Amino acid sequence: MHKAGEFIALARPAFESAGLEVQTARLATIPFSHLLAERDVSEAVRLAQSLERAARFLGYEYISIGPAVPDVPASYAMIPDILAKTQAVFAAGIIASSESGIDLTAVRACAEVIQRAASISTDGFANLRFAALANVPPGVPFFPAAYHEGDQPTFALAIESADLAVEAVTGAASLQAARRRLVSSIETQAQLITQVGNRLAEMLGLQFAGIDFSFAPFPDRERSFGEAMERLGVPVVGLHGSLAAAAFLADALDRANFYRAGFNGLFLPVLEDAVLAARAAEGNLGITEILLYSAVCGSGLDTLPLPGEVTSGQLASILLDLAALAQRLEKPLTARLMPIPGKVAGDPTGFDFPYFANSRVLAVKAEPLRGLLAGQETVGLRRRKTNDG
Where are the alpha helices (DSSP H) in the chain? Predict the structure, then answer.
């Protein structure tokens, strides 16, 4: 923790003096299950509370204690209690990894975490601090996916950059011009950020892991990724053409040259994006569409408001689709699903949170899995082969 304290004391003023706004500072640990001696719920809660106090004392707003892992099956069931007894602690659960494949038991365990966590408060807000992870490596700076591995203290930077996409496409004379503007904007900002990051790493003896420039939004239109898609030419996000817009913007991010960490893809969080929230409320954007856009480098299903009566079996079906997509595409995906007690599909949400844009509860087109898909296996899915191998 000493290094973490040194880092935040120097990092915040260093980035701010370079003209960069620091929204929050966040600390991520190794998976919490690796820190437990007795592996019981009470110990897990005490550990989380202790880490929360330490992180806040050092100046971090939030802390991620990492994911529950399949080799410690009991770790999944500990998470709802941890979320209930803390305010700034984030956690996750691994449902698939590139090394082991999809763990069907873990898929169901994460579904049960989501269902239990929904009842912690009347608005289901605790699930903001939990995500199911598929093929997500350590070192991602965005929460709740963040966790660390190894002994070397490391830092990475998550950039809220949807506004860059909005600015690049606004008034552009062509797709090529919009892409050039976006690539140039990303690279210009990345160069400045990297200079500060490298200087901090050298001063403190830390490893600078890189930058995640995923197009993360903020709930106003000028910083909405949905707004960027519509200014590109999609009449309404959720209609056909949206996939092409998402693919185009993700491709531009891929073309930019910078030191990378994390997802570096698209964030499509319904409750954190003003335009996505509006389109979901209108009935144009749902779970299936967002999962589809994840195939062209979205980061998965994020802050989706769901009916309070959704079952763990239905949630597991959604998570399994996400895990399968991550495996076949060899890419990281996450699911942050938010059942809201007492709400049904179509009901308006009523969150009072500055980082949320209210929407309506999404319909769930899922039923519990049966047969072989309801088993307890771990099964890997290989990337699709092309004719040249």
Answer: 2-17, 41-58, 74-84, 104-118, 162-169, 175-204, 225-232, 242-255, 274-282, 287-294, 312-329
Our CA angle for 99, 105, 111, nearest 5°, is 110
Euclidean distance between CA atoms 184 and 171, whole angstroms: 16
Tell me how crowded residue 382 is: count the other CB atoms within 10 A of its CB: 9
> Which pLDDT value is given to residue 46?
96
Tokens 């608005």 map to which residue?
A: 123
Q: Return the domain boundaries, the chain.
A: 2-377
Could you count the other beta carbons within 10 Å of the beta carbon of residue 286?
19
Q: Report the 10 Å Cβ neighbour count for 149.
A: 13
**CA-closest candidate to residue 306, choices 117, 64, 96, 79:** 117
pLDDT digits (tens, 9 = 90+) for 44-103: 999 999 999 999 999 999 999 999 999 999 999 999 999 999 999 999 999 999 999 999
Whole-prediction pTM value?
0.96
pLDDT at 389 over 70: no
Beta bridge partners of 102: 96, 379
Q: Look at the domain 2-377 and name its fold.
A: Anaerobic Ribonucleotide-triphosphate Reductase Large Chain (3.20.70)
pLDDT of residue 387: 75
